[in-house]
Amino acid sequence: EELRSYGIDAPIGNYSFAVSSERERKAVMRFGFNHAGFELNYGLYNRGSGIYRAEKYSGIFTLAEDTTFYPHLVLSASHIPTEDSSVAIRSVWDSYFAQGNKSFTIGTYIVTPGIQFLHEQKASHPLAIPDSLSLRSFRFDQLTPSVDVAVNPKIKFGASAEFRSEDSSRNGSFLPISDAVTYRFSSTLANLSGFSSQLDVGYRRKDYSDSISKRLNGGDVRSLLLRWIPRYQAANNIISIDGIYEASEQRAARAER
Hints:
Shape: globular
Low-confidence stretches: 5-19
Strand content: over 45%
Order of helices and strands: EHEEEEEEEEEEEHEEE
Distance between the termini: 62 Å
Structural class: mainly beta
Oligomer: single chain
Number of strands: 15
Number of helices: 2
Radius of gyration: 25 Å
Largest sheet: 15 strands, antiparallel
């Protein structure tokens, strides 16, 4: 437990000692198994006397990949309730994350399929209207399947597709705002006769279902990103050359009458 008072022991202007002080508590528990680990966290933060309060409950589970059965796996969750009487808002922020992948040897190639899921939701309510969401509320879901292919220790390729849906507060409740998909392709060349490079290509499409958000962002969005990072390093480090090239293009489709 930690108490911070900033040396203030008497009221200053409109702020008393109680408003200016902070109290923080933290607790951690860890468990370990053969291939797995588990961690639990708790945190409590107070500012002033009933001015601001936040708690955090979180946990993370990890599983290490082996060469036969177990995949690489990460699972985490957090729950953060807060209350701020200075703006009369109570919020609950929940987050869930899962990621897993597993490597397989197919001929001379090492293929690693994977998947990642992320969910976040922040529900904020005015203290006077607990059943109505404020404009600070949002939530989204994101799913990303991927695959990496190692041709040999020097040449690797990767591809992924990220699907994301976003909701926001409208008239006191959650409504769909947008759907987006992002495709990524990458290739890596490592130290082939001193030459290395990384090439990344991404394409993103975002469509708005909410007319207000669509108007504020100029319509549905299409964007393309290209990045190339070459490097050459001669033997004995006599010569070393690094470079980077980036190009991007974004278009917004506006509705016309």
